[in-house]
Amino acid sequence: MIVGERKPLSEIQEMLKGYKKVMVLGCRTCVAVCMAGGDKEVELLGSLLRIAATKDGSRLEVVEDAVERQCDREYIEPIREKVAACDAVLSMACGCGVQFMAELYADKPVLPAINTNFIGVTESTGVWTERCGQCGNCVLHLTGGICPIARCSKSLLNGPCGGSQNGKCEISPDVDCGWQLIYNRMKQLGQLEKLAEVIPAKDWTTSRDGGPRKIVREDVKI
Amino acid sequence: MKAGSNLERILTEGKFAVTAELGPPKSADAEVIRKKADLLKGKVDAVNITDNQTAIVRMSSIGAAKLALDKGIEPIMQMVCRDRNRIAMQSDILGAYALGIRNMLCLTGDHQKFGNHPTAKNVFDLDSMQLLDMVKRMRDNKTFMCGDEIRNSKKAPVVEPKLFIGAAENPFAHPYEFRAIRLAKKVKAGADFIQTQCIFDLPRFKEWMKEVVDMGLHEKVFILAGLMPIKSPKTLEYMKKNVAGMSIPDALVERMKGASDPKEEGVKFVVELIQEVKQIEGIRGVHIMAVEWEEVVPTIVERAGLLPRP
Predict the structure, then answer these.
(1) Residue A159's closest CA among B130, B223, B79, B188?
(2) Same-domain check for residues A78 and A23
């Protein structure tokens, strides 16, 4: 899923300055799972904004709502009237949701309440970690199902570098060395010989380096 | 001879090589390089010019290498993968060769987190293995990474950069079992010579070298043992605590602590270590990394009986 984290309240308040009626709009998919922008978080942020407004004497009306997904037109179309009644929308979706809302409601300021961080997993309750670098050309079959792009701090394809120690990365004792993980897994699979091969330079055109990406599926296109 | 550098000649002739490190300044002061070059000239066979080591901005490796060259000392230009993509790398390699640089060391590079611009974006378009492969292809196949011939036009002559290609290897990083395999990969990718991470833990180094020799790698690549003279027990303790991928035995820390003259003890340790590594099968030279202490290198080389240089 896409993992995000709510921005600090002070930053959000700064964004909202000058608006009188704001819609806090949650998204019930990825950011709801990672507890950043679902129904509960909308309610919490709405309350925080109201309290803050009362405290500093500013007049801010906060409307709360949430949709299934802000990255699908069918879910954000039906809220047209509610959006029209507000000065601005504070989207609690990932960066995609914010942009899709802004695209559909071009005359309405759509503001981000969330920082979109990474594609990751729920490692344990309250802990999410990055897993995929979205390079567009998966190499997981070569590296024991552990991504060297996302999980090595230097995205090395022929690691580990000289900074790997006790299973940890040189950047922090809290970060696992991705290549130590790859080594361990390949050993477990009995495929260490695969790591003796030099993995050639990557073609980054399928990644963000090739420009904004687009997929068109003729078989399902209407 | 692949590149015709002094270092390549010495190693190819079977002589014991000595290299040292020459760190560029954190300014545009060319005098720093000239002074260090004067200190090291005639005492070592070539000097490594570091490339923004520990991600702290310094004078460029190419610029400093050219300054050293002009002072009559042979540079080994270091290049890390952190700051350049394949376009900038190949361009800089052409420029370096045109300026007379003949040795190059291909490195991954320390993460920018440690440096003075931790908010920077890193590159890592290639890793050190892929960089080695690219430099070798430029030299031996006379082509850029994309496959194009290294010539200015169809009618122009092919002028490829003929570099003596080096890499580093750290026998003290983990997992230990992979370190000799990783060296084999670097040899396969194109390394002509290797400079190891600095040795403090001799038993582990010997263990790694045994694996290297068992794999026959010592016959395919020239291995120079990395050594670092330490000024004080404090420095050693700092490195033990803060520098990843180092193995520093407690006994050495105690030895430095007990010394009445720690600087002298540091020199003594390296001189002893040189005698030790000379006995190890497959070691073809030493690389002395006296970080911001270049003036001690001549003393070490002399006391180790490595003068005059061939």
Answers:
(1) B130
(2) yes
Cα A14 to Cα A10: distance, rounded to the nearest angstrom:
6
The angle formed by the CA atoms of residues A61, A67 and A71, to the nearest 5 degrees, is 115
Tell which residue, A161, A198, A10, has the closest CA to residue B185: A198
Q: How many domains does chain B have?
A: 1
- Is A100 contained in some domain? yes
Distance from CA of A161 to the nearest CA of B (A): 7
**What are B219-250's pLDDT values in tens digits?**
999 999 999 999 999 999 999 998 889 999 99
Q: Find how far residue B43's CA is from the centre of its chain.
A: 17
Q: Are A110 and A15 in a shared domain?
A: yes
Tell me whether B113 touches chain A (CB under 8 Å).
yes
CA–CA dist B167, B64 (Å, integer): 19
Q: Do A198 and B129 touch (CB under 8 A)?
A: yes
Q: Are strands A168-169 and A172-176 parallel, antiparallel or unpaired?
A: antiparallel
Q: Are residues A91 and A145 in the same domain?
A: no
Q: How far is A43 from chain B (nearest CA, A)?
A: 34
* Residue A221 counted as domain residue: no
Which residues face B227 on adjacent strands? B288
DSSP type of residue B100: T
pLDDT in tens, B273-292: 999 999 999 999 999 999 98
